[in-house]
Amino acid sequence: MEYRFIRARQPVQKEMRRRAILQAASALAYEGRVEDITLGLIASRAQLAKSNLYRYFENREHILLIVMLEDWEKWVTKLEHTVWDEGTTGGKESFVASILADSFRKEARLCDLVCLLYTVLLPNLSKNVRLRFENEFAVYEQRTSRALRQGLPTYSQTERAIILRFMVVAMAGLWPMRERNENQFVTELAHNLQTHIRGLAP
Q: In whole angstroms, what is the distance from residue 180 CA to residue 29 CA?
C-alpha cells in the first residue's frame, strides 16, 4: 500500500511518528513470531512508507531492540513492586527463584526478544546503538539488583548482578520450551535459578 509522505518537522510530530513505529512493531511481536517481522510489515501497520522508518531507526533490529528495552523497563517496574515475603517452606532462594521464573512466563514478547538479543539484534546494529543499549540496560540491571536486594538481603551487589546475568541466559535457553509445555519451562527455570542462587550464598 502506498502512503502519502508528510514530513514530521516539529519535535512533537517526530516523537509521535517514532512512537507509531514502535507501537506497530510491538503489536506485531505480540501477535506472531518475532522472527517473521519485517520492515515492510512494520511500515504497513504504522501506515508509513518503508523508507520513512530509516529516518528514526537504523533497521528492523534497532526497532525491535527498543521494543525489548521498553518491555524490560515495564518488567523491572513490576518487580520493584513485588512483595518479598517468603510465605513458603523452601527458603528464600526457592521463593526468589519462583518469583523470577513466573514473572517471565507473563512476558512472552520480552522473552522472545531477549532470545534474539545477542544472536540477531545486537550483531546487526552500529557500535553507537550498541553502546547506548549497554548504558540503558545497565540502568535497568541496577534497578533489578536493588529490587532483588529485598528478597536476597544478605547477597552483595556483585552476587545479585551475577544472578541477573545467569537469569537472562537461562531464560533465553529455556524459553523455546514453552511451545511444548509452559509449566515445564517455568519449573526448570526456577530450578536452575534456585541452584545458582544457592551456589552464590554468602
A: 20
pTM: 0.88
User: Phi and psi (nearest 5°) for 113?
Assistant: -75, -40
**Domain assignments of the chain as residue spans, ordered by start:** 1-57, 60-199
Say what the pLDDT of residue 9 is.
62
What is the dotted CATH code of the domain comprising 60-199? Answer: 1.10.357.10
Q: What is the pLDDT of residues 28-68, one digit of tens each?
A: 999 988 999 999 999 999 999 999 999 999 999 999 999 99
pLDDT tens sequence across 135-162: 999 999 999 999 999 889 999 999 999 9
**What is the rounded CA–CA span in Å between residue 117 and residue 53?**
21
Q: What is the DSSP string of the chain?
A: ---------SHHHHHHHHHHHHHHHHHHHHHS-GGG--HHHHHHHHTS-GGGGGGT-SSHHHHHHHHHHHHHHHHHHHHHT------SSSHHHHHHHHHHHHHHHT-HHHHHHHHHIIIIIGGGS-HHHHHHHHHHHHHHHHHHHHHHHHH-TTS-HHHHHHHHHHHHHHHHHHGGGGGT-HHHHHHHHHHHHHHHHHHT--
Task: Report which listed range, 39-53, 77-91, 101-115, is most confident.
Answer: 39-53
CATH 1.10.10.60 corresponds to the domain 1-57 = yes
